[in-house]
Amino acid sequence: MDNDIFYNPTKVIFGRNTELLVGDEVAKYGDKVLLHYGGGSAERSGLLDRVRKSLKASDITVYELGGVKSNPRLELVYEGIAMCRSNGIGFVLAVGGGSVIDSAKAIACGTPNSDDVWDYFLEEKTAKAILPIGTILTIPGAGSESSDGMVITNEKTRQKLAYSDLGARPVFSILNPELTFSVPAYHTAAGISDAIAHIMERYFTKTEHTDVVDRMCESVMRGLMRNAKAAITQPEDYNARAEIMWACKVAHDGLLGMGREEDWGSHAIEHEVSAVFDVSHGAGLSAIFPAWIKYVYKNKPQRFIQWAMRVFDVEYDVTDPDWTVMQGLKRYLGFLKSINMPTSLRDLGVTDKSVLDEMAHKCAEDNGGTVGHFAVLKESDIRNIYELAY
Amino acid sequence: MDNDIFYNPTKVIFGRNTELLVGDEVAKYGDKVLLHYGGGSAERSGLLDRVRKSLKASDITVYELGGVKSNPRLELVYEGIAMCRSNGIGFVLAVGGGSVIDSAKAIACGTPNSDDVWDYFLEEKTAKAILPIGTILTIPGAGSESSDGMVITNEKTRQKLAYSDLGARPVFSILNPELTFSVPAYHTAAGISDAIAHIMERYFTKTEHTDVVDRMCESVMRGLMRNAKAAITQPEDYNARAEIMWACKVAHDGLLGMGREEDWGSHAIEHEVSAVFDVSHGAGLSAIFPAWIKYVYKNKPQRFIQWAMRVFDVEYDVTDPDWTVMQGLKRYLGFLKSINMPTSLRDLGVTDKSVLDEMAHKCAEDNGGTVGHFAVLKESDIRNIYELAY
């Protein structure tokens, strides 16, 4: 294990009806809140009304900003920052999935500083202060409910970039699995694919002696796969929804990366796909990650052999270890297909290869020339992975 | 999963030389510290000098209170409280193992309140304020470095009681595996036994649908057993020491009990043993827990079948599920013996059965009549478990 710090102070309030506690929680931080959300589903389901009522009961003045789309846009972030500044709002409450939470985090980073918030994503500056953030999660997967990161899309420059800051971890996150009953099968599956990818970005590491955390990674991957089918096919199965919701949180709260160098190459490679084609991030990862594995596993085959054996119960073939890896990959692909996730760029609707060169170029450029740590990939490697994923 | 809250804001600073950061960390909370420790080993090793130096470099005034013994005593807690009050000390820094940290927590609970701190342990009152606590851990196992609990022995009443308070989680804990190189084999093994017990107290639950957390429990138990031998027989094996240190933290930071009813009967039953015989808590658990399993597994055999299969790779016997459990138990006992832990009260030096009646009586009495939740055990059950463990 490498030297490392684990610090995750997000208070997670888990279970049925927990959204009714939101007023009490927000009141600990202030009396004015920006209520930030996406489209109409939180309104239609009555969730937003319950939230408003709880906030009102705690004498909190509510300012609202809806309209967050998946792959959340910088323009709306600017709008939120302006609202918070002009009204002296000191708390941002996100009600929604990862996109809403990421947008809320960016607003919280931008509001109390005089910088252009986009400079943080360009890695030119870091936020000196950040407003406290709370979340009520409705779509598990992104893990933003207790992570320190956010991803925002700048439509003008066609860039989709990430910013991480320890101060951006929500102070509380409310996770009620019932609120996920209405998540459609496709988005449920995309969330699961995303969560598995969050674990694999940490699992495939060059760091040696990572036994306990490895085993924890494997257990959460298995748990996600074990409960995926029920959560998708029986959308009101509370138990399966609860398992998935909790596993998605653990997958990205930092614990599973403790003491090791993480990779994050596949995420960067996927971000280019969803920036250009506006596909769901988890679906994009479902096409990219298998290709990444195929491309890089020879760098350190034992990582992938262990993964195949412990996550997918593949028998070790002493005479042909590569077979073991390929069987693991086959089962991973089989799982993704079983939950109707795309496993190629064509499945995602990319019908023209000519765009791949530009994507690879942009991906390398946006990330300072290379992506990844387990495998350091330059533009030509990224292009090869797009090719494999096509 | 049951409704539950996960909130663990302890910042864990992990790795080589991390004790040198202690001054910076304490300075965030104040300029006067009670440096609390045990016997001479932290002095002899030079650790205390490094700590003093780091605190001094951060302009922190240091007051010292050493002398904590295993099964930490209430008398010393009172002394610490008096020191903190008379000197206006606002931070308690524990340098040592679980006993030192528990003692520090009790001092931190007692200082800012006018109550007798023992009333918290008698469940008559709760602390209204608690001083911030930091730790530099030297003996892994108890998990006190990021738990909310503490156990203190009142020699006058011969009671060993626990108190838990969310405010008692250390604000930071420094975990440098090198500091554990000097932990003798017996105490290393006792710590590992304790950590496995912390997981099993959570794992054996009546709560249904606990899949993901179950798997995480299993992975940490396996990790502890996988690395135990190396940590014990090659005391300067950094990698094994690091795995054990991290696993012991995870075992008791609350994560592995998320969304479930926990048991804690074996701990209460063991506390009576170490209160009377002053044996190491982890060694006591090594004698008590197997007896507890034997006594209660029929309440819900599938929990124990799963444990046997997933933690100990026992093959499931469809025609004789009990065999599966007994094989698991046999392998658990085999593991404990392999690390030279006692597996009976006689191994612990209890040579006279006549004391068992009184211990069972006291155990029930101290815990309001019964112990445990998975299995609710009254005095006669506790007596039976002592008998099985004899």
Model description:
Two copies of one chain form a homodimer. By secondary structure, the first copy, chain A, is of the alpha/beta class. Chain A folds into two domains: 11-180, Rossmann fold, CATH 3.40.50.1970; 185-389, Dehydroquinate synthase-like, alpha domain, CATH 1.20.1090.10. Chain A is 49% helix and 11% strand. Chain A has helices at 22-27, 41-44, 47-57, 74-87, 98-110, 118-121, 185-203, 211-233, 238-251, 265-277, 281-296, 301-312, 321-338, 354-366, 379-389, and strands spanning 4-6, 11-14, 32-37, 61-65, 92-96, 133-137, 149-154, 159-164, 172-175. Chain A has a six-stranded parallel sheet, with helices on both faces. Chain A has a two-stranded antiparallel sheet with strand order 7-8. The first copy, chain A, is globular, with a radius of gyration of 20 Å. Chain A binds chain B through residues 1-16, 18, 177, 208-209, 211-213, 215-216, 218-220, 222-224, 226-227, 239, 242-243, 246-247, 250, 255, 258-259, and chain B through 1-16, 18, 177, 208-209, 211-213, 215-216, 218-220, 222-224, 226-227, 239, 242-243, 246-247, 250, 255, 258-259. Strand 1 of chain A pairs antiparallel with strand 2 of chain B, so a sheet runs across the interface. Chains A, B: Keywords: Oxidoreductase. Chains A, B: Pfam families: ADH_Fe_C, Fe-ADH. Chains A, B: Residues 188-390 form the Fe-containing alcohol dehydrogenase-like C-terminal domain.
